[in-house]
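Suppose you are handed only these lines of text.
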Amino acid sequence: MAQRVQGTEDLYGNYMRAWQHMQDVAREVFGAYGFDLIETPAIEQVATFVHGIGESTDVVRKEMFRVYSGALIDTLLSKGSEEGLKAKQRLALRPEGTAGVVRAAVQNNFVPQGGAPVKLWYAGPMFRGERPQKGRLRQFHQVGVEWLGAPDAAADAECIIMLMRYFERLGFAPDSLKLAINSMGDVACRPAYRNKVRTFILDHADQMCSDCLERAEINPLRAFDCKNDHCREVMSDAPLAPDNLCDDCAEHYAQVKRYLDEAGIDYVEDPTLVRGLDYYTRTVFEVEVEGAGVGAIGGGGRYDGLMELEGGKPTPGLGFAVGFERIALALEAQGVNMGGDAPSCVYVACTPDVRTHVFSAVLALREAGIRTEADYQGRSLKSQFKQANKLGARLCVVLGPDEVAEGVATLRDMSTHDQVQVPLGELAPYVAARLSPC
Ligand code: HAM
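From them, the structure of the protein bound to histidyl-adenosine monophosphate can be written out as follows.
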């Protein structure tokens, strides 16, 4: 039997309803902030991610799934390397959504010079070749937003506020959420800071793991995130980003915090929060759920250099993404059923002799938008009722020879077992009224 790929999941039933609910709430909450839905391809040129996310990040170096057409694989095997392949032949499954949205914004000129900011949200599968474990998958689902063309610190604060409102609307207890923020500086101050951290790591080389020594050369700030406790202990004495900001970045960070305070948003400043993607400048943030043990449920930040890295004009940007699977796990631990109840339906049951009359009754109910089920396997009336119960039907329409002769249907309430007779011609509006909440 063919097997599901490790680190991937089938989405169906309650889990699928939960994923759809996350998108419905996103449409409502992000819509109020002026965001429109965008869908970019799940497959992009490798260059899109290398330019944007950064060649030295784990996501690009180790975790990106590369895609080659069957014909290319023969060429690759015979040559033994990717060399000579054109950019359009070097493809990858997207490990995240930002780079693709920014690529689309550049290609379609979403933010013309001097134009108004553009606000986009998206939902879809992302792919990372990580070691699968609880809350860490190879195909996972993100809902994210990107806001292009807004340099103002108010945009950073609004983005964070919108994220926290989204989590609350999904059902998280507000005091279970831990929001961490930091500022990573920009092109003016980050290179010098990076260098300071590199020097610090090299000065403590005898106490650091080999991964961190490698990081010192390619991506020193990632040493703050080392899985090795001892490295993190050493790094607690390393120079911190907020202490090394230029005046403009320091002022921007102070403003973001002022706006968050004004909106009454609780946050902790984590000067070691660096995030795993290279495109961030200035504000970065992450949200965890106290005690959930699934890692960050969402994160994001500002990326004022990304449009240029993707070949566009200098345009500021910021955004965040949240992970569906981690949110589902964390909400479940809080006793929240994000998928809600299965939709109730109406079941049309009949005796075999009047089966043909059921056909038009079922059609009429469905035309009225009522979720309607019937028997297609020649079951007895008793087992049709059983089936109706199993499907969670609130009402059962019963048709037998007497009802058909009189032009009525018997309507049975499946929880109280009360029955009424309704003229067949009035069945759909009657059922719709019985099912409506008030
Ligand atoms: P990220 O922090 O890499 O940011 O991912 C965002 C969220 O996706 C994480 O907080 C986590 O909930 C979820 N996630 C990431 N990797 C996995 C995985 N392997 N399995 C399950 N869930 C996962 C980004 O992707 C940025 N593009 C966010 C952003 C948008 N920044 C600016 N705009």
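What can we learn from it? The chain has two domains: 13-189+245-333, 345-435. The pocket of histidyl-adenosine monophosphate is lined by residues 96-98, 128, 130, 135-137, 140, 142, 144, 146, 276-277, 296-301, 319-323, 325-326 (CB under 6 Å).
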